[in-house]
């Protein structure tokens, strides 16, 4: 039997075991998918080698990239990995977050300009996803120390976002609203941006964040991160099991998310 896991800290909230185990059952794979609470990133490789593969979540995605023997092009460019496969003692790294995001925003992809709020690991994956889509990008964050990771892109602090500029798509990649009722930046800034925007996307899933609520009040089309979560899982499942019926995998994972 092959054993897979999601590895992170915290991990108890992770929906990945539920999603993957339902798909494993549907495809009759001889496998099980569990969760592992890792205290220290230094042990990631050792722990990983006891599994056949894993999804890596906060805060180990960068370390996941570092420990890999082989890296997919997206992993090299983004600098983080969320999907690791172990083959003959070697670690192969992939990033399915950016693929999940692209699938989730399919309907919004005719946007010509986008504002990305936040400059962490997820923002890096999203910038990579959007960079070949002919979309003018601005990355904004509350602190500037992360801008070194975006040296090819236009970046600014929230208070310096040009409010006269139009952003068709506004994306929240920050954790603001995850465990609190905070907006990523001031209401004044967001309301001024939303006046000229059409779509708002939040990577946070399973709740209506204050960011999405405000976007809705300003008549934007909105979407949360559930589909991104599901699709990053679909792409990871394809890699783990060499199964390529995406709609069937998606259906199994979707059911798993909502069956309890
Ligand atoms: P990082 O820690 O790498 O980055 C966090 C970012 O959020 C930074 O830009 C940080 O700003 C900002 N931030 C945190 N708290 C606040 C706040 N209260 N106000 C304003 N900005 C804030 O995290 P990740 O990029 O890895 O993850 C971000 C979110 O994305 C998480 O909520 C995670 O659950 C979600 N996610 C969802 C996925 C999905 O499939 N739907 C996939 C991956 C992630 P600063 O630099 O100033 O600290």
Automatic annotation (TrEMBL):
Residues 109-176 form the Quinate/shikimate 5-dehydrogenase/glutamyl-tRNA reductase domain. Shikimate binds at residues 14-16, 57, 82, 97, 205, 232. InterPro entries: Aminoacid_DH-like_N_sf, NAD(P)-bd_dom_sf, SDH_C, Shikimate_DH, Shikimate_DH-bd_N, Shikimate_DH_fam, Shikm_DH/Glu-tRNA_Rdtase. It is an enzyme of class 1 (oxidoreductase). Residues 6-84 form the Shikimate dehydrogenase substrate binding N-terminal domain. Involved in the biosynthesis of the chorismate, which leads to the biosynthesis of aromatic amino acids. Catalyzes the reversible NADPH linked reduction of 3-dehydroshikimate (DHSA) to yield shikimate (SA). This is Shikimate dehydrogenase (NADP(+)). It comes from Campylobacter peloridis. The gene is aroE.
């Amino acid at each position: 039997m092959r054993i897979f896991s999601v590895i992170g800290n915290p991990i108890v909230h992770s929906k990945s075991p539920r999603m993957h185990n339902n798909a494993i059952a549907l495809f009759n794979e001889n496998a099980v998918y569990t969760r592992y609470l890792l205290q220290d990133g230094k042990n990631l490789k050792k722990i990983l080698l006891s599994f056949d593969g894993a999804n890596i979540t906060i805060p180990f995605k960068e370390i996941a990239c570092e420990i890999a023997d082989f890296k997919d092009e997206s992993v090299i460019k983004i600098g983080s990995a969320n999907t690791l496969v172990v083959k003959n003692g070697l670690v192969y790294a992939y990033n399915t977050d950016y693929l999940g995001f692209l699938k989730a925003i399919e309907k919004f992809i005719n946007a010509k300009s986008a504002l990305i709020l936040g400059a962490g690991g997820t923002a890096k994956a999203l910038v990579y996803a959007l960079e070949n889509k002919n979309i003018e990008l601005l990355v904004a964050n509350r602190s500037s120390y992360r801008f070194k990771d975006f040296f090819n892109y236009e970046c600014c602090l929230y208070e310096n976002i040009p409010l006269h500029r139009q952003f068709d798509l506004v994306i929240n990649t920050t954790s603001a609203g995850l465990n609190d009722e905070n907006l990523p930046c001031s209401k004044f800034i967001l309301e001024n941006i939303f006046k000229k925007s059409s779509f708002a996307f939040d990577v946070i899933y399973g709740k209506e964040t204050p960011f999405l609520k405000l976007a809705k009040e300003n008549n934007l089309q909105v979407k949360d991160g559930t589909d991104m979560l599901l699709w990053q899982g679909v792409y990871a499942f394809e890699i783990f099991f060499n199964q390529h019926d995406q709609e069937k995998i998606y259906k199994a994972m979707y059911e798993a998310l909502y069956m309890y």
